[in-house]
Amino acid sequence: MKLLFKICFWSIFLSSLSVFGQNIQWAKDQMLIFTSQWKGERFPDGRPKVSDDLVKRLANISIEEAWGTMKNEGYNNQFEGGWQIIHPDKVLAGRVLTTQYMPSRPDLDNPIKEKGKAEGRLGSPNSWPIDLLQYGDVYVADGYGKIVDGTLIGDNLGNSIYAKSKTGVVFDGAIRDLEGLENIDGFVGFIRGADPSYIKEMIMTCINCPIRIGRVSVFPGDLVLGKREGVIFIPAHLAEKVIINSEFIALRDKFGIQRLKEGKYTPGQIDQAWTREIKDDFLKWINENPKLLPMTRAELDKFMKDRNW
């Protein structure tokens, strides 16, 4: 069975590289294979649709806590650092829409442009993914690190991206019109660099396909969280677990810091496995401070039922 799955997996993957037999945007059945562990709502194209509530809460968790939970689940390559950041004082959080770019060659460029025209896509290929963005999406592009002539957007496309998504971008590539993009209040960009050149000698090859961003394999429908450290990509099926676990850890830390300041416990007591006395004190503290909960009380109770403190 495993061998059969691998054969089917790679057959679909390799066939997707042929622009003659496939659409520019990955088909729903291809999306379902790569995101089969997601059991929730989906967009019409098959991309996982993590709830708006979880996306909103995502912005408030720490990258370290998210990384720890995913590492425990076997996802060891989900973080990428070393970015130039547009508006580093703001957080980037949303659902991923992916696109891949490759170096140009005539027998690649021409069929893609013809296929795009046949599908009714307007403008140059680097604008096609932007047409698909919805509120809460983050445009994530594999531009293979190209800087000079690798500028995927300028301020015009940046304004369009923000108008549609209210988020920003993650580009393993470059942008132009940096000053103009910085003038878009709320737009957050993680980029490899900025250059005044126009995009040249590269072609957009697929939309909503698995891509590589540095050391991360990114799937459409993943959640992305970007902060000063860098960006972390969370598989859709782990989103709820990662977010609630991160929120719980932050809640524990807030309680522990308060009790340390009050002198009620020693650092040794807080940093090691909690005694029954501290656990009961924590639960009492939660009851007395319901407004501090980032999740619903029902979500917290369900989480703590299976929690090994």
Automatic annotation (TrEMBL):
UniProt GO MF annotations: metal ion binding
Cofactors (names): Mg(2+); a divalent metal cation
UniProt: substrate binding residues: 154-157, 176
Top-level lineage group: Bacteria
The keyword Mitochondrion is assigned to this record: no
InterPro entries hit by this protein: RraA/RraA-like, RraA/RraA-like_sf
Keyword vocabulary terms for this entry: Magnesium, Metal-binding, Signal
Gene3D superfamilies the UniProt entry points to: Ribonuclease E inhibitor RraA/RraA-like
Keyword Metal-binding tagged: yes
Residues reported in the UniProt entry to bind Mg(2+): 177
Residues making up the signal peptide according to the UniProt record: 1-21
Protein name, as recorded: Putative 4-hydroxy-4-methyl-2-oxoglutarate aldolase
